[in-house]
Specification:
It is a single chain. The protein contains 3 helices and no strands. It is mainly α and 93 residues long. The chain has a domain at 36-64 and 71-93. The longest helix has 19 residues, at 42-60. Helix content is 55%, strand content 0%. It has helices spanning 11-27, 42-60, 74-88.
Length: 93
Amino acid sequence: MPVAVVVVPCPSEQEYLGFVQAIGDAIAGKRLRDCKAEDASGPVRKLLDLLARLDSWADEVEPVEQQQRFGNKAYRTWHARLEEVCPREGLRS
């Protein structure tokens, strides 16, 4: 007999989803080609720079040769960099 599972989102998940929804509402009807990174506000530019840095780390941190079941252990290296950089950049990890 199937069992019904009820998922109750935690407050932080609800806050995050509300944030994503607000961003979606703010950009509704705008075309991507009309957006230029150089026109972005300071905080948006800082976020874009951070995302570019995180993306570059994904290229720099080589996957570890291992049997994989739950992900690659190289993620620990990537996450350690994140933990180191966040306080320096004034971000919470």
